[in-house]
Amino acid sequence: MAAAPRGWAGGSRWTWRPVARDALLARAFHSCTELRGRLYLVGGLLAGGATEPSGDTVVLDPAGDQAVRMGARGGPRRSHHDAVPLGGRWLCAVGGWDGSRRLATVAALDTERGEWEAWAAAPGSCPPAGLSSHTCTRLSDREVRVAGREGGTRTQRRFGSIYTLRLDPGARTYCYKEEGDHTASRSGHCAALLRGPGPRPAHQLLLFGGCSSAEPEVAGHWSPGTIKDEPTVAPRLMEQLAKLVSSGRGSQQGPRGLRHHSCSVVGPFAVMFGGEALTRPRDAVCNDLYIYDARKSPSLWFHFPCADRGLKRMGHRTCLWNDQLYLVGGFGEDGRTASPQVCVLDLFV
């Protein structure tokens, strides 16, 4: 068996194992998106207390553990935004804070030409007042579901709006449509598109955190066959997660009052880590691992705490690639110092 990891709880052991370190990766509230076997980091804040977000784009090759800054022109200055891949070529950054205001615009990186483009709003687009700490979930190669913060703290509604964002790379345009449903007012939450159990599973888009509730909220429901999502190719990691939740070592408890955490979908599991506790005035940065198991109805939470304070993170990102879950960036225990490390999740079960 491998050496004992640093993070463990009650005999079920797990840790984030460092695999690379680079000052280019030290940032928080950035986006991290897998595209063509590379991880693209866009923008973010380079230090706690900073108000001007970065405008650079860093590409990480996980196979070689090497990071390089792209010389792409016109990169958007953004933090607290989100990004989605499109057509195996485009990386679309949606909304975020530009240093003076919250935006709902779309900037797209053409990874073939290495250039950023500011796409235009299509006729009839009804954009949000401004987006930050929101989520963007890819439904198809042209459609994204947007949920979360709209407007500033003074103009935020008592509820959260849900938008469908349609992207047209041919016309270089985008179009927002507000959906009729609403959610609780959330900011700094995460989202997971999960299949339900059964031979013909439907899809649900679930929102986790960003408010005081420990329960996920449905931000979209699609009947069987409506969404043709690509199956997760992570057999080893899915097997390890299944063993971990069936070990009986984790408590069946969901994250309450958590924001700025990370979430990645691994098959039927949503894997959440870290974040900032809204209920704690001190020592608010967390290092807990939560797993949401959607294989049966009702779905179950599993909580695995961590003893290593050096793994505390907020404003970080996790990204699935090549059957491994990567942790990139984020502020550490003090909530101000950005981590330059890249780590992978190791499960000892």
UniProtKB/TrEMBL annotation:
Keywords: Kelch repeat, Repeat. It comes from the Eukaryota. The keyword Repeat applies. One of its GO terms (molecular function) is cyclin binding. This is Kelch domain-containing protein 9. InterPro entries: Kelch-typ_b-propeller, KLDC9. Interacts with CCNA1.
